Amino acid sequence: MHLIGRSREQLKLLGDYLGLCRSGALKELSKRLNHRNYLLESPHRFSVADLQQIADGVYEGFLKALIEFASQHVYHCDLCTQRGFICQICHHHDIIFPFEFDTTVRCAECKTVFHQSCQAVVKKGCPRCARRRKYQEQNVFT
Fold this sequence. Notes:
Blueprint lengths: L1 H19 L4 H9 L4 H4 L6 H9 L2 H18 L1 H5 L21 E3 L6 E3 H6 L5 H15 L1
Antiparallel strand pairs: 1-2
Helix pairs in contact: 1-5, 2-5
């Protein structure tokens, strides 16, 4: 169930990207969802059909296929890739996304995305939040 919950979280984040894309990929994903649009809205809501598929051992494969379709769209769509992130710790030029759970971590406060390996090195916390706090402190004194 942990893997299914994780996959549902990924699918929700991917749905957020496709929901803002003008390419029509969300319509295609909706077709593949078989009228289960709640999968894009809440990772914690399950239908009886979902629970039956979990029991039958096919639900995880269903989710993986949806995630593969949606992530491939995001990686290859100009509009979606522009909504990606650059790691603010290492500043490497590769674009990272919040749904890449195996390699990224997200700040709980500002939602910025970092490489897991970079975040592990920085003990101070999120550099974006630190910059924002510093800026706010400067504005208080001026």
